[in-house]
């Protein structure tokens, strides 16, 4: 794995970026793939089987992006709501394509059992540029709060608002990549005028639970399902994964609401963030997508089998 440069090439050490530095950073971002071809075309092919809606629109200069969501066609008010999100960080490819793969291959298995709401690519500008931020150098996954600065996050919050207090489960699909350490964390430190502190990228899949409301059995059910597809990240020598103490095998915890993370946007009792590791020599892109889909299936299966899921499912 490459190591980060001693100093990020934009800005001056210890000084947060201003407009000049942000403009310089933006000028270096290039479109590398197509949201329309990779994502919108797939959603269109799903339209005969699911309800598809545009829940927002992003206008970034000459770039225009419809934000699309997929819903169960047989939506019923007496069924629990399951929220699936991907591509909050656009460069985390399997989050997007794993969500779409789940809808295509598995969603029909849950017809009449849950209401599915899927936002497969929350950050299309970043998807095309294989980046973590939006064009304003803002991380959408720290912006899921009322005063958040990312339009991507605000649009998703508006979509989810009507079901916020009725959701049973939310799974947010992410990746941890080698470029987190070589590009994105160094850029973050430079943007904020802070020193970069190197970390260790975990080799394998892991989950992020909510430290304020943990559900350890739920998390372990996902770990057991995903390890049939890809390997689980071990703790490092300090008993940590990516700088956080391991709460259980393959699981760390963050205060989701405090950090403004996507997984905090509902009151769902079951919440998790997946982290696939696509840079391992032991996995393929197909395995990464399959791991995300397996995590979604395991999550829904668990909550439907739980006492909570059964009671909500019977509610009139």
Q: Could you explain the architecture of this structure?
A:
It comes from Marinobacter algicola DG893. This is Peptidase M14 domain-containing protein. Belongs to the peptidase M14 family. Helices cover about 35% and strands about 20% of the residues. It is an alpha/beta fold. It has a single domain (about 35-315), classed as Zn peptidases (Aminopeptidase, 3-Layer(aba) Sandwich). The strands form two sheets. Strands 1-2-4-3-5-10-6-9 form an eight-stranded mixed sheet, sandwiched between helices. Strands 7-8 form a two-stranded antiparallel sheet. α3 (about 95-105) packs across α9, α7 (about 215-225) packs antiparallel against α9 (about 285-305) and α9 crosses α10 (about 305-315). The protein is globular, with a radius of gyration of 19 Å. It starts with 18 loop residues before the first helix and ends with a helix.
């Amino acid at each position: 794995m490459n190591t980060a440069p001693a100093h990020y090439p934009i800005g001056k050490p210890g000084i947060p970026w201003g407009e000049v530095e942000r403009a310089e950073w933006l000028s270096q971002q290039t479109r590398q793939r197509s949201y329309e071809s990779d994502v919108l075309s797939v959603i269109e092919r799903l339209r005969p089987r699911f309800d598809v809606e545009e829940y927002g629109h992003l206008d970034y200069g000459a770039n225009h992006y419809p934000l699309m969501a997929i819903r169960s066609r047989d939506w019923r008010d007496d069924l629990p709501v399951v929220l699936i999100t991907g591509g909050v960080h656009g460069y985390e490819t399997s989050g997007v394509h794993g969500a779409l793969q789940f809808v295509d291959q598995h969603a029909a298995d849950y017809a009449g059992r849950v209401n599915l709401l899927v936002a497969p690519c929350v950050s299309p500008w970043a998807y095309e540029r294989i980046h973590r931020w939006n064009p304003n150098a803002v991380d959408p996954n720290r912006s899921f709060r009322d005063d958040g600065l990312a339009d991507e996050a605000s649009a998703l919050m508006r979509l989810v608002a009507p079901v916020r207090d009725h959701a049973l489960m939310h799974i947010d699909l992410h990746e941890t990549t080698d470029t987190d350490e070589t590009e994105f964390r160094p850029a973050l430190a430079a943007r904020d005028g802070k020193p970069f502190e190197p970390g260790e990228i975990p080799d394998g899949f892991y989950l992020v639970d909510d430290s304020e409301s943990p559900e350890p059995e739920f998390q372990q059910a996902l770990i057991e399902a995903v390890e049939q597809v890809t390997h689980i990240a071990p703790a490092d020598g300090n008993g940590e994964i990516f700088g956080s103490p391991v709460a259980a095998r393959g699981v760390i915890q963050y205060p989701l609401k405090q950090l403004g993370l996507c997984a905090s946007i509902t009151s769902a009792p079951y919440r998790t963030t997946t982290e696939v590791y696509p840079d391992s020599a032991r996995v393929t892109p197909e395995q990464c997508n399959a791991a995300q889909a397996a995590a979604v299936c395991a999550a829904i299966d668990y909550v439907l089998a739980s006492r909570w899921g059964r009671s909500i499912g019977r509610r009139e």
